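Quick start: what a row looks like.
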Amino acid sequence: MPRWQDRSSRAVHFLFYVVILGMAASGIGMMVLSGATPIIFGGKTPTLPYFWDYLPRRPHGIGAHLIPTLLVVHAGAALYHHIYNKDGLASDCIGHKAGDLPDCGHVRAGSISSTIHLS
C-alpha cells in the first residue's frame, strides 16, 4: 500500500476515535451546563433548553457532521481496495475469527494487532 494511503488510513481511524469521544464529552458537557439531565432522564415534562446557548454545542455539531463524512471516506476506501485494487484488504479486515484482531493492511507490521494476541 502506498505511504499516503497508509497515513490516510491511520488518520481516518484516529479521527473516528477523537470525534466519537469528543461527541460524548460535548454531549455530557451540554447536559451538565444546561441542566437538561433531569428532563431527559427523569421524565419531567418541561421543554428542553436551547442548546446553542452552551459552549459544547458547536463541537458537538461539528462532530455530528464529521462522523458521516468519515464513514463515507472509510467505506469508499474499502470499496476502492475491494473493487479497484483487488488486494484482499477488505477480506483481511472482515474475514477474521471472533475474538481475534483483524489483520488489515494498515495495521499489519509493527502495530498493535501484530504485537498483541488475544487468547
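That is the whole record. The mean pLDDT is 79. DSSP finds five helices and no strands in the chain.
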